[in-house]
Amino acid sequence: MTRQNGILSRRIANLTCRSGPGNGKIGAICPPGFFALPAQTLNFAAFFEPEIQIVMEIHDDLTAQSLRNLGIQALNPMQEAMLEAAGGERDILLLSPTGTGKTLAFLLPMLKWLRPDVKGVQCLVLAPSRELSQQTASIFASMGTVYKACCCCGGHPAAEERKTMAARCPAVVVGTPGRMLDHIRQGAIRTREVRTLVIDEFDKALELGFRDDMGAILGSLSHLERRVFLSATDSEEIPRFARLHNPCKLDFLDGSVASRIQMMKVCSPERDKLETLYRLLCHIGNRPAIVFANYREAVERIGGYLAAKDIDNGIFHGGMEQKDRERSLYKFRNGSCFVLVSTDLASRGLDIPSVEHIVHYHLPVNGDVFLHRNGRTARWDASGSAYLILGPEENIPAYVDAGLETLPLEGEPCRPAPPEWVTLYIGKGKKDKVSRADVAGFLYKNARLKRDDVGAIDVRDYYTFVAVRRKHLKQTLALVRSEKIKGMKTIIEEAL
Q1: What end-to-end distance do the CA atoms of the chain give, in Å?
Q2: Which of 162, 168, 313, 350 could covalently link to 339 via disulfide, CB atoms 3.0 to 4.6 Å apart?
């Protein structure tokens, strides 16, 4: 049997494509791009005891269904390799470039490690940021499995998370180290059934600022059977407390992402680079770009300057309230602004496929940060551009090719037109029993909007963001000012 379509394709063919009694032909439930083999070709009963075989069939059926729910027809080689490695008993160390699907690469094997007959938390997933934690939990929920997951990552009271976990009885908990440790110490997360630990972006999560929390978490997992560490950069040294035991190392860092990114330098005649940045963004036009700065204060200053220049932008850094962080990301994702100004908080884990340009307003502190920043563009097989803005006394860092082409910014800058979309804030959310269908129906009826006038809708726990066409903003706000959504009065305003 060849391996051309991957181990998962073979398992799906054997376990889910039984459209007739023993015919082994691919049926309607099989995703396009997978091939089927006769059911008798692969006989897991020859290798596993009956009880284990039943569990494995459940897991493979869940895998196939999860892919269908996600709309995924095929896996890439890295994801296939991860599935194959997950069949063993060794710890796993996965190194793969940003934007290659590492989250799915560990969520799919997780379905094989979880057991439906076990009550309690079986797997912990640690990530260095709230946004990456929420993103991971959201993808797991979209897989539509029989297992429940909870996200514990700050930004709201820990008591709410404890209440949610008590009600849901999750098999998987995703979160940031500090909040996860707090729940373990409070007894909200009981570790006696935890057999799997996943650390995403482990090189960041194991840095000095996280080490005490990480060490305490690992020390509490006395029944751990497997550890899975993932990153886009290779760490020279993994701390001893991580306790990786002879890991299976999967290294896919082949430099292919860097080859799809066009790097250029932009020279600023002054130490203050704001005017040069403005000219560069005018040159880029209405295309999604992330501007990276090294300090929170700089992010605030840059965002304010661009706003004064009528460049719609969002700012993003760790000192912001969670709602404000979510608003900035949502506006950037839905096209309400084309520029996101951020610290390196946005350099890891955020999956925003549309990003075309990366601007290094401040030089990255090292090569790893440079790699992670650039990894926000050229996701999957796409291409992108990255720009280094150099002041009069700055030089190209050693980790960047010294022969970078210079982008000249000549002539008068032409400010880009405002985005086609604008974001509304609605002060009701999931906890108020408001759904996306409720929001869409409310806008169709009360604001007299057509379907193509309403964009992405993001319903959070206590509020909702929704994109509408900018040309209908005034009309929408005027028509819904005194209206109720699901019988409730609430604030409806532009999300600034």
Answers
A1: 57
A2: 313
DSSP state of 347: G
- Name the 3-class secondary structure at 237: coil
Decide the pairing of beta strands 405-406 and 421-426: unpaired
In percent, the amount of the chain with pLDDT more than 70 equals: 86
Pick from 28, 16, 60, 24: which is nearest to 41 by CA? 24
Where is 77: in which H helix or E strand? helix 77-85
Give the model confidence (pLDDT) of 89-104 as tens digits: 889 999 998 888 999 9
The pLDDT mean for the chain works out to 85
DSSP three-state, residue 314: strand
Predicted pLDDT of residue 272: 96
The reply to whether the predicted model has a pTM over 0.85 is: no
Burial degree of 72 (CB within 10 A; 0-12, 13-18, 19+): middle
Contact 426, 463 (CB under 8 A): yes
CA–CA separation, 495 and 421 (whole Å): 12
Q: C-alpha dihedral over 374, 376, 380, 385, to 10 degrees?
A: -50
**Is 471:465 a contact under the CB 8 Å cutoff?**
no
Distance separating alpha carbons of residues 399 and 351, to the nearest angstrom:
25
Task: Determine the longest span between alpha carbons in the chain, in angstroms.
Answer: 75
Distance, CA of 473 to CA of 65 (rounded, Å): 40
Exposed/middle/buried for residue 7 (C-beta within 10 Å: 0-12, 13-18, 19+): middle
Predicted confidence (pLDDT) per residue in 231-250, tens digit: 988 876 787 778 887 899 99
Distances (CA, A) of 73 to 47, 68, 204: 28, 7, 32
Region for 101 from its dihedrals, namely left if φ exceeds 0, alpha if ψ lies in -120 to 50, beta otherwise: left
Residue with tokens 């493979």: 60
Distance of CA 184 to the CA centre of its chain: 24
Tell me the average confidence (pLDDT) per consecutive run of 10 residues in the chain, 496 residues long. 36 32 29 27 30 46 89 92 90 90 95 94 95 94 95 90 95 96 96 96 76 91 94 79 86 79 95 97 96 98 97 96 93 96 90 89 93 85 91 93 91 93 96 96 97 95 95 97 94 94
Q: Which domains does the chain have, with CATH numbers?
A: 1-73 (no CATH), 75-251 (3.40.50.300), 258-406 (3.40.50.300), 421-494 (3.30.70.330)
| Angle, CA of 352, 126 and 128, to the nearest 5° | 55
Helices (H), 71-176: 77-85, 102-113, 130-142, 158-168
Residue with tokens 């409806």: 492
CA atoms within 13 A on the CB side of 468: 26
> Contact, 173 vs 221, CB < 8 A?
no
Cα 88 to chain centroid distance, Å, stands at 27
Q: How far apart are CA 441 and CA 452, in angstroms?
A: 13
Residues 6+ apart with CB under 8 A from 169: 119, 120, 148
Residues in the chain: 496
